[in-house]
Amino acid sequence: MTAPFRLTGLIAAPHTPFTPAGELNRSVVSAQAALLIEAGVAGAFVCGSTGEAHSLTTEERERLTEEWVRLVGGRLKLVVHAGHNCRAEAVRLAAHAARAGADAVAVLAPSYFKPVTVDDLIDFCEPVAAAAPGLPFYLYDIPALTGVSLPTAEFLDRAADRIPTLAGVKYTNGDLVGLQECLAVRGGRFDVVFGYDEMLLAGLALGVKGAIGSTYNFAAPLYQRLLRAFESGELGAARRAQLTSVALIRVMGRFGGLRAGKAIMGLLGVECGPVRSPLRPMAPAEIRALYEALQPFDIFARPLRSPSR
Ligand code: MN9
User: Fold this and answer.
1) Atom of ligand 1 nearest to the CA of 199
2) Which ligand 1 atom is the nearest neighbour of the CA of 214?
3) Long-range CB contacts for residues 276-283, cutoff 8 Å, separation at least 24
């Protein structure tokens, strides 16, 4: 039997680059990928929440996936998010991810009409996973955004019999009791990848080995420091690093979270363009204010460039 698939270390959830007019701008992916490789990040979670998946057409998601695989397939672990409220589209996206050469596929719970029971969610996921029979399959659990809050450990345990490729869960969920249960399901056979950057240390303490998140795009050095401190038992240093991440994410929150993170990419010299409606693009004055607010932080993968230049 082969060892189970694992996503370890930091996996960034890249922003989807747009032109100033809002068209998909695949030419930026090489600069995004170069930054991740330079920063020593282990992989990319393509077309997730940070990638504004729900604001992209299926074709755009496919083109973007192809670009990531073309540029860094084999060098970064590529997980493609294939979730969609329309299951047929999710099936199409999963099949495409497999054809394109992704390393794994992930699926969000549908969020307009919601699964009411764990079985509803398994019913939704089963054909999506089956469309990519060669790829490890992850549930993307993020109740704060989907509004779907089902017992994740129960999902893993029950889905194990119906989804042969089930590898684990991307757990963006503050329920740390549930996290422990996920890690314990079937003797710890599932990969539980932590999704709240601002709580990574708690996840590590409970046993996670990998994390997928938005701030790993630009602040990987901070989290690498946190990981090293945790591994060498320097909990004080690990807590300080985590608290810096909390402060960073608070600053981003003041500017709307995702849109601020996308602007930070620009400040690192990787211009990812505006966010799409219904999110509101950052005004130049907001980008300047964000730049000022980030001055106390010495955590970025590259020096921040003044936006006025
Ligand atoms: O799942 C990301 N979640 C969202 C991953 O973007 C909604 C996280 O990486 C957060 O961006 C991060 C900041 O809150 O933890």
Assistant:
1) 15
2) 9
3) 276/18, 276/22, 276/52, 276/55, 276/56, 277/55, 279/52, 279/55, 280/256, 282/255, 282/256
Ligand 1 near 214 CB (within 6 A): yes
- Output the pTM of the full model: 0.97
Active centre residues (catalytic): 140, 170
pLDDT in tens, 153-175: 999 999 999 999 999 999 999 99
Is 152 a pocket residue for ligand 1 (Cβ < 6 Å)?
A: no
Q: Can you tell me which atom of ligand 1 is nearest the CA of 261?
A: 11
Q: What would the pLDDT profile of 32-87 be if each residue is shown by its tens digit?
A: 999 999 999 999 999 999 999 999 999 999 999 999 999 998 999 999 999 999 99
Pocket test for ligand 1, best of 46, 197, 252, 255 (most atoms within 8 A of CB): 197
